[in-house]
Each structure stands twice: as C-alpha cells, then as structure tokens.
Recover the amino acids of this structure.
C-alpha cells in the first residue's frame, strides 16, 4: 500500500504501480502555476470472488452485493466517498467533480489529486479486493483565466503545427471539422492543457480556451494558411495547398508561414 503524501501532480509520478498515458505522461513545465488538480484514473483491481477458473463473473448475486458493499464501506471509511443516487455502481466524492464508477476489475473516473492515496487505501482495505496498478490518462486543473491564456500562448507554435498537420488534405475540395472543440482535443496532446470548465465540468470546453482557439483559427485563415468553407450551416477548414501559400507575397507572410511550408513539404 502506498503511503507517501502527494502534494503535486509531478509527485504522483513517483508512485509505484502507476502508469501514465497520453499527455499525462509528460511532466508539467516548471514555469506553469499548478491549480487544483484532478486525476482521470483507472484503478485496476483483483477481486477474488469475481473470477473462477479464469472466467469473469460472480458465482451468485449475493457475492456481487457483498463485493459492492465492501468497496462502498471502505471508500466511505478511508476517503469519505458515498454511493451516488444515480446508481449503486456510481460513487461520488467530496466535491462535485469527484466521481468513480465501480466494476470488479476496475474503479474508474475523476478524483482530486489529494484523494488518490485515500482511494488506494480503500481498495487495499476492502476485504477480497487488491490493487493491481493504476492508469492515469488526464490531469485536469482548475485555473484562473490568465493562467489558461498563458499556457495556450506558450504552446501556440505547437498548437498551430498540430492544427495545420491535422487539417492537411490532398484535394482543394476536401475539408475537415476544425472547431475550437476539435482544436482543443488536438492541443491536449500537450501537457497542462486539460482544464476544468467554469461550470465544473471535465467534458465542456473552458470559455477562455474556446475564445483563444477560435481567434487562432480565424487568424490562420486571415494569414492564408487555413482555408475556410461554410456548408449547410457548418464550418469546415483545410490547410492551404503548397501553391496557395507560395502565392502569398513575402511581405505578407506571417510568422507561421515557414512552419506551414515545412508541413506541406513533408512526405
């Protein structure tokens, strides 16, 4: 059982039996100011009563109820988590953002960074269950507007590169969806760009990020590096073709012209 105190997202990386994926496996740049951090996590579990001769399934409904009751009791004791009103397999934490879903092989969802250790203790403290390992996929943060814009500005060259590469097509009449939501999902390949939205949601796009990315996409269109098409009320984009960016006069080429040329020249 892990007992080392956790105070920052980078400290989480020192834990044993913890594997990181996607942008979560990249450390947060040191000059970023961390906010209240949550963890999108899967606790992979062994539940002895759930597997017999290698096949999944409880032998009886009573075994399943006993497993559920033991986990719920341990989470209440060690972490203060409670069963959700929605379903007995949903567990709510100490804030509206903390929510876990229970399966005999997996306890998954979002928890506050400070709750990671308590949930680990609960799994180890529940009779008949044990932790195999943890998978961490995101580290969303609650940040002020200035910090969000600061991070997006810091990463802007990388975001532009990813947008232009993603929107590159082989034909002038082929376009792709590139809304701020799509752009954010592309940008989130970089560490430190998972934000808790103003309404406390992990799924919604933060209004500051939406505004920033909307302006960035429009700026790339104005610079001639993206081409926009509106069809049936939907907005589509593609990266300008090689000939299109070459036709831009040198005096009118933006700071990202060379980057676009490099992307279009790649095989």
């Amino acid at each position: 059982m892990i007992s080392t105190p956790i105070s920052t997202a980078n400290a989480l990386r020192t834990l044993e039996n913890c594997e990181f994926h996607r942008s979560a496996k990249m450390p947060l740049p040191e000059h970023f100011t961390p906010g209240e951090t949550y963890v999108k996590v899967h606790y992979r579990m062994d539940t002895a009563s759930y597997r017999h001769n290698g096949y999944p399934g409880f032998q009886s409904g009573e075994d399943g109820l006993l497993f559920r009751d033991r986990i719920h009791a341990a989470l209440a004791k060690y972490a203060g988590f409670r069963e959700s009103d929605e379903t007995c397999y949903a567990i709510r934490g100490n804030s509206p953002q903390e929510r876990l879903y229970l399966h005999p092989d997996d306890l998954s969802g979002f928890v506050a960074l400070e709750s990671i250790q308590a949930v680990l203790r609960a799994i180890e403290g529940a009779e008949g269950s044990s932790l195999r390992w943890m998978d961490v996929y995101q580290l969303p943060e609650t940040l002020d507007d200035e910090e969000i814009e600061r991070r997006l500005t810091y990463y802007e060259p990388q975001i532009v590169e990813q947008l232009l590469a993603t929107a590159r097509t082989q034909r002038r009449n082929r376009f792709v969806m590139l809304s701020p939501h799509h752009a954010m999902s592309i940008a989130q390949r970089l560490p430190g760009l998972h934000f808790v939205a103003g309404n406390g949601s992990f799924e919604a796009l933060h209004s500051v990020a939406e505004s920033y990315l909307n302006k960035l996409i429009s700026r790339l269109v104005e610079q001639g590096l993206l081409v926009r098409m509106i069809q049936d009320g939907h907005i589509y984009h593609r990266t300008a073709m090689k000939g299109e960016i070459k036709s831009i006069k040198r005096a009118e080429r933006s700071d990202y012209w060379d980057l676009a040329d490099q992307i279009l020249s790649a095989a």
